Amino acid sequence: MADEETTPDIDPRLQFILGYLSRSMKFKIEKWQKMLTTDEYKKVVYDFLDKVSTRMLFITLSAGGVLQATSTFPSHCKTKSVYFIKKKLFHSLFEDRVHSHLIYGDLCPKPIDQLAVLTEE
């Protein structure tokens, strides 16, 4: 499991996401690093961090043990996922206030059921 001391040079916004992921899911830091070296997933993560128009980020640990990032709701997920949603669409994430600009949490393997509960709240 990763902690803040093992990745000192990481962007604070990525550090926040990694910190939440490592508390929520059990995985080795290599899986995080591999996800960020995969162009498709890296683009999704950085679009979420840097682009105003990208409001949601979902990260799933697949049954095969691979971290996968997407900006759309994972409708066919069989494992646990986490979500990060910008509170306001016009904000890109600033390094010093990441947590205050996000709603984040865990998604169960049946996300449609959880989405219904989340929208009722």
From TrEMBL:
Organism: Cacopsylla melanoneura
Name recorded for this polypeptide: Dynein beta chain, ciliary
